[in-house]
Every structure is written in structure tokens, then in C-alpha cells.
Amino acid sequence: MILAVDPAANGRGDRGGRLTAGRGWRNGVTADRSNRRASATPELVDIVDRPAGGSTDPLRSLAETVAARLRERVVSGVLKPGSHLSEQALSDELEVSRNTLREVFRILAGEGLLRHEVHRGVFVSTPGVEAIIDLYKLRRFLECSTLAQAQPRHPGTKAMRAAVVDALRCRDAENWLGVGSADIAFHAAIVDLADSPRLSSFYAQIALELRLVFGLLPDPEFLHGPFINENLAIVARLESGDPAGASKMLEAYLNRAERLILNAYTRATRSKLPSDGSRSEV
After folding, report:
1. pLDDT confidence of residue 22
2. What digits encode the pLDDT tens for the residues 186-213?
3. Is the C-alpha dihedral spanning 53, 55, 59, 64 positive or negative?
4. What is the mean pLDDT of residues 204-225?
5. pLDDT class for 21, splitting at 50, 70, 90?
6. In whole angstroms, how far apart are CA 281 and each of 90, 91, 99?
7. Half-sphere exposure (CA, 13 Å, Cβ side) for 99?
8. Three-class HEC string of 109-122
9. How many CB atoms neighbour CB 280 within 10 A?
10. Partner of 202 at 20 to 30 A CA spacing, among 47, 51, 194, 240?
11. CA 121 – CA 88 distance, rounded (Å)
12. Buried b vs exposed e over 35-70: b needs ≥16 C-beta within 10 Å?
């Protein structure tokens, strides 16, 4: 069965819809993934489809395939922090055993995307203030130092420019989740300037956690809109041959972004996030 999101579940396809399934799950996954790759940036394809161990065991391989689909829902902003994942419902919809689904949950919990609550079930993780601060500390350390030492003609510079173009296109279409994805791709391209596969792989995990943070905030336009032109200015400075100047711009940018997100998170947790466990269910 092909994992999808039913927009009718809440009236909008871009907000936490119910996971559904259609015929041909196992045979349809490849075609569904190919269609999504056509509209996704290369950086996000890498984040979503990276192997979770590369096992040749059939059960493990199926679990990794299902995990990739659920991971994609997090990256795209469809699965929101706090969403409850019903083991029975997902097992029925995906036509996989509960044992397979539990392996999926174990994989994603190991990545920090899901958490298990005793006697309550499995939920999409909800980052707290400490996690947000730590993420931005890591981002400043990784991105600013990488950018300061970058070669302006590195292929990653073109990837940064392409991500900005994609963000502008999404902004014009008022696709703010798309703008968020383009922003993540822009910063992943900065890390790729280091030519370190391990560093890029590490940053892919940070990108997943960032999407969880973004999902906490109710207004993606407010979150992403102010930074599109700043991304453009940063890549233009790098292209001009001034990586050190671009790095200083990025550091100031990340400081402002952290403050904006922490303030917005505080407002959101006061008024939006449930405190009685009445989370949305998938």
C-alpha cells in the first residue's frame, strides 16, 4: 500500500493529515518516491532516503522503507510534533505486521523523531527550549566555520543559489512549507562546502530535528519569510569571493533566527500545545 496523507482528514493537505494507504504498497513505494524526488531538492532527498543501516534482512529492509516514508512526513512538515502514531491503525493501513512497525518506531526513536510514553504509546517528538538552544549552538559551530573556509567556486555554492531560487518560487506560490524545505536545503549546502560526508550525514540529523522545531510554530510565513533575502545576500557574498564576510552574516542571521524561534515557541506553547495529552492522532 502507498503511504499518503488524506487532506480530507482536516481540510488541508499541508497540516497533519491522517496517514492513509492505497493498493500496491510494496510495489508502489519506488514510484511514489520517484515522483517526490522530481519536486524535492537533492539535499532533502538525501535526508529523507538515507539508509538506516543498509541491512539485507527482509524484515529490516521493509522497516527501513516504512521508516523512510514516516521520516518524509516529518521533513515535509506533515507530521507535527506531538502527533500520536497509532500502532494498530498504521499496521492495518500499511499492511505490515506490528513487529515490523515496532522496528520502524525503534529506528525513528533512535533518530530522536519519535518518543515512547509508557501506557500512552508513540508520539512525534516535541523539542523543548534546551533542544532548540543546543541545535542553534551546533549550527553556528558547523555552518559558520565551514562557510568561513569555503571556496567560492565550490559546487555547494551553486546548490546554495538553487535553494534560494526554490525558496523564492515557493514564496511567490505562498507555499511556506516549501520555503522551509528550501531553507533547510540551503543550510545543508553550506555544510557540504566542507567536503566531509560524515559532517554532511551528521547535519542531516540536525535538519530533521530542525523540521520538528519548525513544526511547533503556527505561522511558517512569519518564521521563514524574513530570511529568504538574507540567504540570497549570504550566497551573493560568497560568490563575490568573501567567505569570511558571508560567515559573519550567517552568524548574525542564526542569532536572530534563534531568538525569533524561541520567542515564537514560547508564545505557541502557552496558547497552542496541549498540556493534557489531547494530541492529534495518526
Report:
1. 38
2. 999 999 999 999 999 999 989 888 888 8
3. positive
4. 86
5. very low
6. 11, 14, 20
7. 3
8. HHCCCEEEECCCEE
9. 18
10. 240
11. 11
12. ebeeebbebbbbbbbeebeeeeeeebebbbbbbbbb
Yes or no: say if 37 and 45 are a contact pair by the CB < 8 Å rule.
Answer: yes
Cα(201)–Cα(244) distance, integer angstroms: 24
Note the pLDDT of residue 30: 41
Amino acid (1-letter code) at residue 229: N
What are the structural domains of the chain? 3-124 (1.10.10.10), 129-271 (1.20.120.530)
* pLDDT at position 251 over 80: yes
Which range is least confidently modeled, 98-107, 149-158, 233-242?
Answer: 98-107
Q: Is the dihedral of CA 224, 75, 4, 281 positive or negative?
A: negative
Q: What contacts 141, CB < 8 A, 6 or more positions away?
A: none
